[in-house]
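Handout, page 2. Input:
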Amino acid sequence: MIFKAVGDSRPYPDHGLVSPSDWSGIAPRQVRLDQLITTRTTLDLETLLDADSTFYGDLFPHVVRWRGQLYLEDGLHRALRTALHHRTVLHARVLELGSPPVPRAGSAGRQVRTPR
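Output:
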């Protein structure tokens, strides 16, 4: 199996990132294909085989982490192309949605005063 699961929708709330420039602030990182859940069930074979398919878009797929799951929002063709090259990992931009804020070191249990 290439992906963890094949979904047909985005189960997470709208995050507001629409264009590749919106996603560009998120540094790419490695993601295993078998941890991804797709958000589309259809694949355009012409796009898959097109050598210039990423010419106008982001070079990296877009993944949303929500409730501990990784959803492949954009880049299904690139992920499948990765699998066809017998690779199990791809570089993607991963947006962490709904994750609780990480407390700063030394601030647990006490309030931080800011100078006025």
